[in-house]
Amino acid sequence: MNYSKLERFDRILSKLQVEKKIVVSNIAEVLQVAPETIRRDFDELEEQHLLSRVHGGAVNFMNLRKEPEFLRKMDMQKDAKRQIAKVAAAKIGDGDTVAVDVGTTTVHIADFIDGVSNVTVVTNSIAAAERFNLAMEEKRMTGKVILLGGITNPAQASVAGAITLEWLSKMNLDKAFLSCGGIKDGFVYDYDLDESLVSAKMMENSCSRILLADDSKIGLKSFYTICALNEITEMICNEECPADWIEFEDIWTAINGGKR
């Protein structure tokens, strides 16, 4: 049986009311649709404050406006994030100076870098710095990693603040690899003011600005604006550019052919 979106929403919310927590794979099987469809349904219902996303599923709506902690976010859309990061890693060439901001997609770039030399990585992500160091230890790259100074945020494994911005202001970068909390109405958003300011400064000082975002970010708006989407050089996503975002099609790279 083919269900309309509204019918799916009704079935999802009815099941949630009874079971308190529902799982993507189970709902997808019941409604005979792809798990990606259910994830998009969950995202839309969460935006309407009708449920809250959790790892692997959803629960009754919780009025949480802060960003999920870093380790919990690492498990969300993990396969898509790694595929996006793999495409991003291939864009790093010999002699590049690249910036990598805090994110659970950008953190995977170092896992896929291979065969490049004399690369300088500038990052405010403690987790990303560790992975790029590992890439050098494993001789998948040569160069150096600059972990920016600043105030640490243990929950996000990051640094940010005035010192971070001061260091960045003196740096000339070839490419900036950026994450986000959401993309909506032609703007790129993040949850954290300090981290969004660091991402914006990386953009400002880079020749090429590459945004990494899985499909769960499409149509979401969080509190802080990083930039307008048309300021991005390239957008890498696991989904095709939405039909009503045609003005951004030229910068959009859909991995594995994407989906819609």
Overview of this structure, please?
By secondary structure, this protein is an alpha/beta fold. It has 2 domains: 5-64, Orthogonal Bundle (Arc Repressor Mutant, subunit A), CATH 1.10.10.10; 73-257, Translation initiation factor eif-2b, domain 2 (Rossmann fold), CATH 3.40.50.10470. Helix content is 34%, strand content 25%. It is built from 9 helices and 15 strands. The protein has helices spanning 5-19, 24-31, 35-47, 70-74, 78-89, 109-112, 126-137, 162-169, 193-204; strands spanning 21-23, 52-54, 57-59, 97-100, 116-123, 141-147, 151-153, 158-160, 173-178, 182-184, 187-190, 206-212, 224-228, 234-237, 252-254. The strands form 4 sheets. A 7-stranded parallel sheet has the order 6-5-4-9-12-14-15, sandwiched between helices. Helix 2 crosses helix 3. The mean pLDDT is 90.
CATH class of the largest domain: Alpha Beta
Helix-strand category: alpha/beta
Q: How many E strands? A: 15
| Terminus-to-terminus distance | 21 Å
The biggest beta sheet is recorded as:
7 strands, parallel
Helix content: 25-40%
Q: Low-confidence stretches at least 5 residues in length (pLDDT < 50)?
A: none
Q: If you average the pLDDT, what whole number results?
A: 90
Number of domains: 2
Proportion of β residues? 25-35%
